[in-house]
Design brief:
The chain has 336 residues and is of the alpha/beta class. It contains 13 helices and 13 strands. 43% of the residues are buried.
């Protein structure tokens, strides 16, 4: 759904543009941001990507990564860019609070805000909104934004294709989630034709683990995994001490929850991590089990039906116990 289409004409002349995405960007957030960055830059706009935090090291290779500005590392410049922007793109988030420390700056900015996203329940803050909860990834929407809404399929350079391929690949679990439609495969084919080297992208993202990360994974599988067979549910509970013991960095816990979901018969998986200031929660499910409903009702979060997140300021053990106390409400759907 596109709202505010008339605003697109603003791109006919060079503009001061800032691209933002959610806190702790994943592959889709960074891939869509840098894909759009390269396209806008080629069109003559002055454009910057401003992030509220760092991102996983397995994304360090993505074209344009060195031009990303991380707000805590250069606060003054980031604030100047946001304050002087004419257009601020809001990618892969539908509520401004997902940008964490950038939220006050974005709310106060007089720039037009353009949201491109696929998450549920969008906040009404944007002058232009290109939103589709059925899209597999925001990178998919950036592809159609460029190729269809702005009628520039030839503008998809190898760098843009690489960024968007990485975004779609990571948000579809390497094209195995139900959101991977024939339309997604057609876009992927176009990105490969445009120069995305699919085998290299896969290698760089999935075969770049450090020895430390693998040892952390082994530790979690052995010591932190709990299976609840009565509810076809499994969970990981990761303490602050666990993180410190293995010197866990951004991205080291990425995908961990999927190991719980990979157990035969498991239909709901949860990952709880003590991040000191908050307990962070990730849920993944199979079929019609509503991760988004659970996160929205009980853990100040939301997301997609089969993949959602949330948080709590309670202790780790309390959050885990609260999650377990919710499971009887969903027993029928978990065990059918």
């Amino acid at each position: 759904m596109l709202q505010g289409q008339n605003s697109l004409q603003l791109l006919n002349e060079p503009k001061q543009i800032v691209i933002t995405t959610h806190h702790k960007p994943d592959g889709d957030a960074l891939g869509s941001s840098l894909g759009l960055f390269h396209w806008l830059k080629a069109k003559g706009h002055h454009v910057e990507v401003v992030l509220s935090s760092d991102f996983p090291t397995f994304l360090d290779w993505i074209p344009g990564r060195d031009e990303v500005l991380i707000y805590p590392n250069d606060t003054e410049k980031a604030e100047q860019l946001i304050n002087s922007a004419e257009i601020i793109f809001c990618l892969d988030y539908s509520a401004l609070n997902r940008t964490n420390i950038l939220e006050p700056l974005l709310r106060e900015s007089k720039a037009q805000k353009w949201m491109v996203d696929h998450h549920l329940d969008p906040e009404d803050f944007a002058q232009l909104s290109y939103w589709d909860s059925n899209a597999a990834a925001t990178a998919q929407l950036i592809y159609t934004f460029i190729a269809e809404l702005n009628n520039d399929p030839a503008g998809i350079s190898p760098e843009i294709a690489t960024c968007l391929y990485a975004g779609i690949m990571t948000d579809t679990g390497s094209f195995r989630f139900r959101s991977t439609t024939s339309a997604v495969h057609n876009i992927i084919a176009n990105l490969i034709d445009a120069g995305a080297r699919n085998w290299e992208i896969h290698e760089k993202i999935y075969n770049s683990a450090t020895e430390n990360r693998l040892k952390f994974l082994g530790y979690c599988l052995l010591n932190c995994l709990e299976v609840l067979p009565n509810y076809n549910t499994a969970l990981f509970s990761i303490s602050r001490e666990d993180l410190q013991q293995f010197n866990v960095t951004t991205g080291d816990t990425e995908g961990l929850v999927n190991y719980a979901l990979s157990i035969k018969g498991i239909r709901l998986a949860a990952l709880f991590i003590d991040r000191t200031e908050l307990i962070k929660l990730s849920l993944r499910s199979i079929g019609d089990i509503p991760c988004n409903e659970i996160c929205k009702k009980h853990f100040n979060g939301g997301g997609h039906l089969n993949a959602s997140g949330g948080s709590s300021n309670e202790k780790l053990s309390q959050v885990v116990n609260r999650f377990k106390s919710i499971l009887p409400d969903y027993k029928e759907i978990l065990t059918k």
